[in-house]
Amino acid sequence: MLSRIEQYRIFNVVASSQSFSKAGEVLFMTQSAISQSIKQLENSIEMILFKRTAKGVELTEARKYFI
Questions:
Q1: Model-wide pTM > 0.85
Q2: Residue 67 has pLDDT above 70, yes or no
Q3: I need a labelling partner for 64 at 20 to 30 A (CA). Which of 30, 43, 44, 50 fits?
């Protein structure tokens, strides 16, 4: 399991790139590892931070409480 700081770093890269795959390339991680980290973060704070779409991801309104 990743540290909360590492999860925040992954969150920031996903948010800026709007893609789990692109974030994985930047962070030298698999898309699956990125997705798992975000899911763990969302579960721990009990908020959905990203809306997953066919074109990538978008931040939800919940991000206002998280950021």
A1: yes
A2: no
A3: 30
